[in-house]
Amino acid sequence: MLYFWSINNAALIRIKKILATIPLFLAITLGYSQTEKCTQTIRGRVVDSDTQLPLSGVTLKITPGTQQLLSDGHGYFRFSQLCSGIQYAITATSVGFDSLITDVTPTDDNMITLQLHHGHILLHDVDVVGHQQAVVTANPVRTVSREQVSQVQGKTLADIFNTLPGVSMLQTGTTIAKPVINGMHSNRILILNNGIRQEGQQWGSEHAPEIDPFVAKDFKLIKGAEGVRYGADAIGGVIITSPSPLPIDPHLSGELNTSYQTNGRGAVLSGMLQSGVNALPGLSWRIQGTAKRSGNVRTADYYLGNTGLAEYNGSAALRYSLPQSVFDAYYSRFYTSVGIFTGAHVGTLDDIQARVEAGRPFETYPFTYHIDVPRQRVTHDLGKLKWHRDYTDGGSSDIQYGVQRNHRQEYDIRRGGRDALPMLDMVLTTQTLDANYQTPLYKNWRTQVGTNLTLQVNNNVPGTLNTPLIPNYDSFVGGLFAIQRLIKETHEWELGIRYDFKTFDAAGFDKYQNLYGGQRDFHNISGSFGGVWHPATEWQLRSNIGLAWRAPNANELYSNGLHHGAALYEIGDAKLSSEQGYKWVVSPSYANGAVTVDLDLYAQFINDYIYAQPSPGEFLQTIRGTFPVFRYKQADATFFGADLSLHYRVFKRLDYQLNASVVRARDVTNNGYLPYIPSDRFDHRLRWQLPINSEVVSNTYLTFAHQWVLEQNRYESGTDYAPPPPAYHVFALYAGSQLALGNHPLEAGVSINNLFNTLYKEYMNRFRYYSHGLGREVSIRLSYSF
């Protein structure tokens, strides 16, 4: 007993000695910290040891310390707040590469290169490349998840983004849709298609974006006025669709996607092949194609006549990569032929008023794949050449040239059997030249400067024997911008300014053969100021104030005729001036293990807002039928709203998702409401991850979804042909699983939309006067990667 006491007593004495040294150690440490601040930085770049190409997304850790980060799109990384005189170990890890540990002692101008070697197992289905541009902005950026994209596989671009809060669709019937962001659509939303501004005849309500969603793998939405970075027309936001990076692996890979929808009996087939070139390291290629066909779709209890579509698309990409430069070439063709609901083209004034009152067609239509008149055919060609350069100091530059040709034809019933002649035949050719330079990060500051030039020529093809809806015109736009960013550990700030000049020269003949048009010049300044603050690991706050503008379009200025695809008569105003919008967005975000909350609050004032106002009681009767009249007007307008996304992990395998959006818009000039503003909507989802995991089956889930759309009661009575439809509820089921076929995955999915076959009308559907929304639809989807 005495022996054990002596041992414990000795141990106690040693512990006391150790404890006695702690204050001395703390004093030395604090004294050192007060005299020696840790202000050193280590900058570097990660490259492939075989090709010397930069590697993005590489995980980097530094010890001692807890800093961990990913290499950016150009392979660069940066560790800050390091102490001089201390040797640090940097560990770099990435799938398909051996881990690398490098010892570095920080100095004033550290710039190191980490070369990763391929591991013994090379995963050919993993793209490991650099030069993937990241979206950098103080505005909130929302990404459509891969699962959400797969659930609407085979549908339109608007359907994909409709899964995000704050986004709805402007529809023309059940087959044509375009995205609406916080009440904004068409030319107030800028769409970047593989880095190129999408330029078509997007001014029409039934002119959907000519983009094949199968080309892209990344779908991002920027809310806020982004006029500085992306130029005029970005008043409502920016949609970005980007393909996956081209592979550097010389092994052939690809994917095959197919889907079938019962409503319309529509089928989609899309395939892609890609590879690097073994004989020429750094060269890679990709080809892709899509075919889609469907017939007349059905509401809950009747078919909609002439609502079939046919679509055939293809694209090809080529990339040559050097250690510090990348050359890209890309080409795509989009072709669609789509029928316009026959019931929207009505014979007499009494007939159209009776149909609006009935709210549904009087005729009974069978199912058919045949596309008759009225219909539209659109071919959109896009070509792109791009050169990217990374500099050894961390700076980079880009030069990009793009050319697009949009050929739109709209057909209608004509006398004398001349239905083969289009009523509208327009070719819009757009050339763009973009150049920018981004400085290296210097004392937490980074600067970006650039210019954008756009030349457009629109010509009406002769021989239609019809007065064109819009005139021929030439348009030139030139812009210069500069963005300054301050990047700190817990916060970032951004200040930008831009100047644009646009000249617009139009010439056309009206139905009386009178010449109209002339030259209009527009110019304006855009600006933005915002920041991102990370007060804690779980919290993030974004706030941005942006000024953007857009000039009126040719149809808003000069249209005076029947728009066949939209089944309405449009009248423009040649005296319209530019819109100028001011938007403030505040976006707090919270995320921990069980709860994720994203909230976007926005307020926007638009000076001289342009909109098409229905003119109730006014109809135009022609040989092709009787059509409602819409007149373009201009007024000051305000938009206020909130978008909420909440995700909650209820149990280990059960998740709840809520998306909600509310927008309030008013005509300030006339103290009234604006037409065609989305009503409040709430989307609920319960997702159950099934406990099925084996070498063959994995990631099996079942999702039950409910959408509640309220009645739009904020409208001016007597200013529309029919009041907004009542609120409605629609339900859906989604199921999916991943199967292993050898070493390659096969993703399978089944969905049932409008589960209970509800008969409803959507306020944002321009054909709601005559018909209801889409009935029950069962979809089967397969996606195979190799």
UniProtKB/TrEMBL annotation:
<dbReference type="InterPro" id="IPR008969">
    <property type="entry name" value="CarboxyPept-like_regulatory"/>
</dbReference>
<keyword id="KW-1134">Transmembrane beta strand</keyword>
<comment type="similarity">
    <text>Belongs to the TonB-dependent receptor family.</text>
</comment>
<dbReference type="InterPro" id="IPR000531">
    <property type="entry name" value="Beta-barrel_TonB"/>
</dbReference>
<dbReference type="Pfam" id="PF00593">
    <property type="entry name" value="TonB_dep_Rec_b-barrel"/>
</dbReference>
<dbReference type="GO" id="GO:0009279">
    <property type="term" value="C:cell outer membrane"/>
</dbReference>
<dbReference type="Pfam" id="PF13715">
    <property type="entry name" value="CarbopepD_reg_2"/>
</dbReference>
<keyword id="KW-0472">Membrane</keyword>
<dbReference type="GO" id="GO:0044718">
    <property type="term" value="P:siderophore transmembrane transport"/>
</dbReference>
<feature type="domain" description="TonB-dependent receptor plug">
    <location>
        <begin position="137"/>
        <end position="238"/>
    </location>
</feature>
<dbReference type="InterPro" id="IPR037066">
    <property type="entry name" value="Plug_dom_sf"/>
</dbReference>
<dbReference type="InterPro" id="IPR036942">
    <property type="entry name" value="Beta-barrel_TonB_sf"/>
</dbReference>
<keyword id="KW-0812">Transmembrane</keyword>
<feature type="domain" description="TonB-dependent receptor-like beta-barrel">
    <location>
        <begin position="348"/>
        <end position="755"/>
    </location>
</feature>
<dbReference type="GO" id="GO:0015344">
    <property type="term" value="F:siderophore uptake transmembrane transporter activity"/>
</dbReference>
<keyword id="KW-0675">Receptor</keyword>
<keyword id="KW-0998">Cell outer membrane</keyword>
<keyword id="KW-0732">Signal</keyword>
<dbReference type="Pfam" id="PF07715">
    <property type="entry name" value="Plug"/>
</dbReference>
<dbReference type="InterPro" id="IPR012910">
    <property type="entry name" value="Plug_dom"/>
</dbReference>
<protein>
    <submittedName>
        <fullName>Membrane protein</fullName>
    </submittedName>
</protein>
<dbReference type="InterPro" id="IPR039426">
    <property type="entry name" value="TonB-dep_rcpt-like"/>
</dbReference>
<keyword id="KW-0813">Transport</keyword>
<keyword id="KW-0798">TonB box</keyword>
